[in-house]
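Q: what sequence does this backbone want?
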């Protein structure tokens, strides 16, 4: 029996879908009110590919699907009377200062740095975890390097190269609290320490932390005031990351048709969310309603 010609493309498409879709596909429709178009949290507009942490749905087999890229999940929490958008990277929380959709840039600041008063104590390096699949440094990235809990007393007699560090680079704000172990702390811009001195210093300190900062802001700040609190102001201005879709052909097709890519927790592409509540297995061209925005 010959198929009516009108239906042929339809069956061909099903064949294509079956061959490109892996894992558990989403049901053919989803509840559009779960994936809100945009949400404002603390003055920051959260839109695809970002999504609120509650904007995830469940499929029939309880697989969670996201309304955007797996790791670009933003929590909007109430901090006193202020809403604060935060994102988790590599297990640490960062406050979202702003998101620029036209140049695909997100500005983040370490939440410890924002809450730590004028001379904050940072506690961790910035690691992306799996989010590196979507995020890269952009703009003019630079670093501040911190050495905490240092004991240079012995070094003063042994290594003269370390002596000069004390005046110029030692953190000397009154409100700085190094923690229970005490010791001296230092802050350097990139390139200020030569390799051998750096490792000599690191040997005498309990912790080394490298924090990305905005290079333009760092350069325009008073370098000699960094140890007395200037570093805190630079940290609070945050750093810039660019987002990109992965080299993920399925998501590219979906976005080209104005759809929104949905992923599982384990970053498997699950389907293309179209604005009319239909789920395209590949894109929104056949769904009759591409997403707006
Ligand atoms: C990821 O999740 C999907 C959907 O839950 C599942 O089908 C797939 O097997 C998982 N893949 C891996 C590598 O765990
Ligand atoms: C869609 O989701 C909203 C928000 O979670 C819920 O109130 C509503 O009942 C859901 N609609 C359907 C048809 O499930
Ligand atoms: C998610 O949280 C926001 C802010 O609390 C709320 O406005 C929105 O309705 C929630 N969405 C769902 C699907 O529960
Ligand atoms: C938020 O950004 C999206 C994407 O650029 C845009 O469509 C939407 O109008 C913006 N919403 C607000 C409240 O600014
Ligand atoms: C990050 O924020 C989440 C949600 O607000 C919270 O549950 C978690 O404990 C925080 N993690 C860290 C390391 O502070
Ligand atoms: C992105 O655009 C914003 C607003 O126009 C601008 O302030 C920022 O410097 C830009 N960032 C990059 C990395 O181009
Ligand atoms: C900043 O630190 C990172 C990680 O330690 C390093 O890869 C990068 O090259 C540094 N950037 C600059 C400008 O020194
Ligand atoms: C932070 O990164 C630096 C260099 O990239 C490394 O030497 C240091 O041990 C790291 N610190 C922590 C606490 O992981
Ligand atoms: C900041 O200054 C350093 C050293 O002079 C220079 O290499 C870097 O390009 C400058 N960065 C910006 C964004 O101006
Ligand atoms: C830079 O900071 C140093 C140390 O706090 C201060 O003595 C100096 O006046 C500042 N320079 C400018 C131009 O503000």
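A:
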């Amino acid at each position: 029996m010959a198929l009516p010609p009108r239906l042929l493309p339809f069956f061909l498409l099903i064949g294509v879908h079956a061959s490109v879709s892996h894992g558990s596909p989403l049901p053919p429709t989803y509840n559009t009110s779960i994936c809100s178009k945009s949400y404002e949290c603390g003055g920051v507009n959260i839109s695809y590919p970002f999504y609120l942490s509650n904007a995830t749905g469940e499929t029939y087999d309880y697989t969670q699907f996201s309304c955007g890229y797996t790791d670009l999940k933003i929590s909007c929490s109430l901090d006193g009377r202020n809403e604060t958008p935060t994102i988790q990277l590599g297990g640490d929380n960062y406050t979202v200062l702003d998101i620029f959709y036209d140049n695909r840039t997100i500005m983040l600041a370490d939440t410890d740095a924002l809450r730590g008063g004028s001379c904050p104590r940072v506690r961790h390096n910035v690691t992306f975890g799996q989010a590196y699949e979507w995020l890269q440094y952009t703009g003019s990235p630079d670093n501040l390097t911190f050495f905490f809990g240092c004991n240079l007393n012995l070094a003063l007699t042994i290594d003269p190269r370390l002596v000069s560090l004390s005046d110029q680079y030692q953190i000397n704000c009154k409100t700085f609290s190094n923690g229970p172990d005490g010791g001296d702390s230092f802050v350097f811009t990139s390139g200020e320490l030569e390799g051998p001195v750096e490792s000599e210093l690191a040997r005498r300190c309990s912790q080394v932390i490298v924090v990305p900062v905005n290079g333009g802001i760092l350069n325009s700040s008073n370098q000699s005031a960094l140890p007395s609190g200037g570093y805190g102001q630079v940290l609070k201005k945050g750093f810039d990351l660019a987002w990109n879709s992965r080299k993920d052909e399925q998501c590219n097709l979906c976005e080209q048709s104005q759809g929104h890519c949905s992923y599982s927790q384990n970053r498997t592409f699950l389907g293309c969310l179209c604005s009319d509540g239909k789920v395209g297995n590949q894109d929104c061209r056949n769904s009759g309603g591409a997403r707006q925005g």
